[in-house]
């Protein structure tokens, strides 16, 4: 036991470093969502791995958090840390085009009799890709509900028709 370098112990230290990158105030989150290590309870684990989800409100924040992840160093003497993978899309930023489209949607929603609050939730969708190309993009104007990816995930049926009317209005308006 004393001759081994416990990869799972090292991973535990790295998880704490990774989770500490999260800063809700600037909209950056790091989540370690999958971990693997060891081959048996009676063997000092020589390998461990984890998967990380990184999200940020702006490209600058995303790149700053990415640099922290790429700069991770071992905690235990003799351990090594290897970071693989990279970003697969940038954030859905509040660009001038996105803000203008939101204002248009907010006005249409008001005309339809409901409020459309603007919220940044740090989600990731194909909208991140279209926005990065300079195409005005809104995300989250579809179904209303709660519990994304959880057992209690649901859609509010009464909200479907008003949301469909909003999307129709956005698609058919001339301005």
Describe the main β-sheet briefly.
2 strands, antiparallel
Amount of beta strand: 5-15%
Point out poorly predicted stretches: none
Q: Report helical residue fraction.
A: 25-40%
Tally of helical segments: 5
- What is the arithmetic mean of pLDDT? 93
The structure class reads alpha+beta
End-to-end separation = 71 Å
How many strands? 4
Query: What coarse outline follows from CA principal-axis ratios?
Result: elongated
SSE series: HEEHHHEEH
Spatial ordering of strands, largest sheet: 1-2
Rg, please? Answer: 22 Å
Description of the molecule:
34% of the residues lie in helices and 12% in strands. The chain is an alpha+beta fold. It has a two-stranded antiparallel sheet. Helix 3 (96-111) crosses helix 5. The N and C termini lie far apart (71 Å). The model has no long low-confidence stretch (mean pLDDT 93).
Key descriptive features of the protein:
175 residues; alpha+beta; two-stranded antiparallel ribbon; two-stranded antiparallel sheet; elongated
């Amino acid at each position: 036991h004393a001759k081994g370098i416990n990869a799972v112990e090292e991973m535990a230290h790295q998880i704490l470093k990774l989770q500490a990158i999260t800063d809700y105030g600037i909209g950056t989150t790091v989540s370690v969502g999958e971990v693997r290590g060891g081959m048996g309870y009676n063997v000092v684990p020589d390998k461990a791995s984890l998967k990380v989800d990184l999200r940020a409100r702006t490209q600058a924040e995303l790149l700053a958090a990415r640099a922290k992840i790429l700069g991770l160093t071992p905690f235990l003497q003799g351990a090594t840390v290897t970071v693989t993978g990279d970003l697969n899309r940038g954030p859905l930023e509040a660009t001038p085009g996105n803000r203008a489209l939101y204002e248009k949607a907010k006005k249409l929603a008001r005309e339809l009799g409901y409020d459309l609050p603007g919220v940044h939730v740090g989600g990731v969708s194909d909208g991140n890709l279209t926005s990065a190309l300079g195409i005005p993009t809104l995300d989250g104007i579809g179904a209303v509900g709660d519990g994304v990816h959880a057992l209690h995930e649901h859609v509010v049926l009464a909200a479907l028709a008003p949301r469909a009317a909003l999307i129709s209005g956005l698609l058919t308006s001339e301005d």
